Amino acid sequence: MAEPILRVDNLCCGFHTEDGYIRVVDGVSFECEAGKTLGLVGESGCGKTVSALAVMGLLPQPAGVVEEGRILFRGEDLASTSHETMRVVRGQKIGMIFQEPMTALNPVHRVGKQLFEALRLYGSGRDQDEPAVAGGAALGRRNRRGRRLYESRSEKDELTARAVEQLEQVGIPDPVRRLREYPHQLSGGMRQRVMIAMALAGQPDILIADEPTTALDVTVQAQILDLLRELQQARGMTMIFITHDLGVVAEFCDEVLVMYAGRIAERAPVGQLFKMPRHPYTRGLIESLPRMDTPSRTPLNTIEGVVPKLTEMPAGCRFSNRCAYADERCGREVPVLESCAQPGAVGEPRDPKRSGEAQAAEPRDPKRSGEAEAAEPRDLKRSGEGEAAEPRAVRHEVACHHWQRLAA
Amino acid sequence: METTSYFIRRFLLIVPTFLGITLLVFAVTRVVPGGPIERMLNEALLAGGDRGAAVAGPQGVGGSALSDDQLDQLRAYYGFDKPVLVSYVEWLGKVVVLDLGRSTRYNEPVWETIRDRFPISIFYGLTTLILTYAVCIPLGMAKAMRHHSHFDNVSSGFVFFGYAVPSYVVGIALLTFLASQLEWFPLGGFVSDNYDQLTPWQKVVDVAHHAVLPLMSYMAGSFAVTTFMMKNSLMDNLSADYVRTAIAKGLSFRQAVYRHALRNSLIPIATSFGNNISLILTGSFLIERIFNIDGFGLLGFESLVERDYPVVMGILVISSLLFLVGNILSDICVAIIDPRVKFGQ
């Protein structure tokens, strides 16, 4: 497997609060393959957003800290790099869109001004072919131009043209007029489109989408998801998609990371996850989804209990107090993430269809796999990875002492 | 367009509000006991006591020291001979043509009495206003950006101390130590006695020299409110999503603060602006008294004590107009800063 574009290694971060330090993300590791979408799933407060903010270096200061771990973007550790380099990484290497388009745009500046500001930072925006982050220092110098938003008439015209182009790309009708409007004059969906346009203005390699559709109504959600998918394919962009909507995960992601209380519970290719969830928490999540074929008036499945407070976490597995399979070992020993995918690995004889799945990560949705292929050529150029040609082992990991018992 | 017509309506609304305020106070001056005539009677009684029965004898009808004729004359002099509404309308008719009547105490036009105090009050009012904003906004910003640092904690201590101690205590303390004991500053007054003989530059220095202590006591109290309003408002905005967006775009923290958070955090400051204008221009009679400054506050207080109602009403006219205009001004400020504010819908 080629070097992933982003590798997060044993990330631990937390916040200094009035009651002392609280670790919120505890030893999270993951990789993003270029051109793919990684889903981060889990309930509110499980650390998915904090992990993403840590990658961006956006943890609230001074309370938030990355205590240990590495965040390797194309080999460079973002956790220990300089502020200058981070400023180039943000926006131009990794873009981010947020959950609340209502509050994510500055209410007192026109849409145009906010877009211009981004475009100005990114220079001409069309010379992105240079070798990635190593050019950080050079880019930084180029970006430190004058303080005013635009220096001349012609620069403003150029910015306007580019901003209009950006807005057109995200499907905003009448972009010239929108540039002159304030955020409160746009609908929620429009604002999220503006956010996407702004996040993509720097041609980032990775887009982190933090619950981008949660605050929108359902029809608009679908539009925004379609837009993101189109843009990702057109640009061969890598995406980290944070959500708690398993439906969105199934449709959108290639690989899924299920998080619970600051730790990874399970990671799997999306098809695998839905077909064979290994972690009791993942199972609980999937079982609580209502299905079309469920007879009406069936009570909805739920996971009993609530997430314990961060200060009152069980010593061992953090899910142990809500888990039907937990024993005293679970309350004592922290389960490590171990592979549960390799055929022939410890006790895995159950499913006869398994071997077939190992070859294709997502056999479920023919539309999706078609799209994945469409995106492939660009990926190959970018990462030089021969994924399509050479099927490789499914990577399915779970952090549970009893997954084998559960699988049986 | 809508905003313009809204502000036109706001300005028109000044008229009924102004009428309401003045009518109320005018009526109160009629009702409260201890009016000028009663005072006059008391004085006459005391005087009568001194001079014995010679005067009191023929005139002492009903225990009053003054005859009915004299009382009627006095009532006519003070304008108490007509019903409240009638004399209010008369008073109002004069106010419209900028005649505020004559002070019953100084027996000179109210306008002249007030006009003499104007430069002093405006000087102190505007300087306090400007200094308060010039110091509090940067201080609040610095405190917000260095929340919980030593600088923040120590400056909070000073600001709260100034807030907790009443401004007249600050004034007396400053006067005792810096003026009386150390003699760094004059003991009071607006200018020195030899002011007229000074060169223009010396005059400026003289006024400034006299102004330091009163200004410090004026600001001690208003400091805390504005500084902490600024600090909290900026801190709220620093944690706002759009600041995170700005940094995610690649802006530095400072750029995000100055270009994005600052303007949003000025909104509450702008809202309180109008209130500050009127409060500061009417001054504080305690501070004026301590530093022997002949300003609006002292005038208002003294004329109230002396029942010099034409002056009281005159000051009320000016301060209520300032208050009303100040409110509209702060609305305009808010509308300028915050495009979401749409009036008149």
Write up what this structure looks like.
The complex is a heterodimer of chains A (408) and B (345). Chain A has 408 residues and is of the alpha/beta class. Chain A folds into two domains: 1-74 and 209-276 and 335-385 and 392-408, Rossmann fold, CATH 3.40.50.300; 101-204, no CATH class. Helices cover 37% and strands 18% of the residues of chain A. Chain A has helices at 48-56, 83-92, 101-104, 111-121, 136-143, 153-169, 175-179, 188-200, 218-235, 246-252, 270-275, 280-287, 328-332, 354-359, 366-383, 403-407; strands at residues 6-17, 20-32, 37-41, 64-73, 76-77, 94-97, 206-210, 238-243, 255-260, 263-269, 338-339, 397-398. In chain A, the strands form two sheets. An eight-stranded mixed sheet of chain A has the order 6-7-8-3-9-10-12-11, with helices on both faces. A four-stranded antiparallel sheet of chain A has the order 2-1-4-5. In chain A, a hairpin with a 2-residue loop joins strand 1 (6-17) and strand 2. In chain A, helix 4 runs parallel beside helix 8 and helix 9 runs parallel beside helix 15. The longest helix of chain A is centred in the middle third of the chain and has 18 residues, at 218-235. Chain A is globular, with a radius of gyration of 22 Å. Residues 125-148 and 344-391 of chain A have low confidence and may be disordered. Chain B contains 16 helices and no strands. The model of chain B is unreliable at 52-62 (pLDDT under 50). Chain B is globular and about 85 Å long. In chain B, helix 6 (110-145) crosses helix 9. Chain B is an all-alpha fold and 345 residues long. Chain B has two domains: 2-96, no CATH class; 111-337, Orthogonal Bundle (MetI-like fold), CATH 1.10.3720.10. The interface between A and B is medium-sized, with 33 and 22 residues.
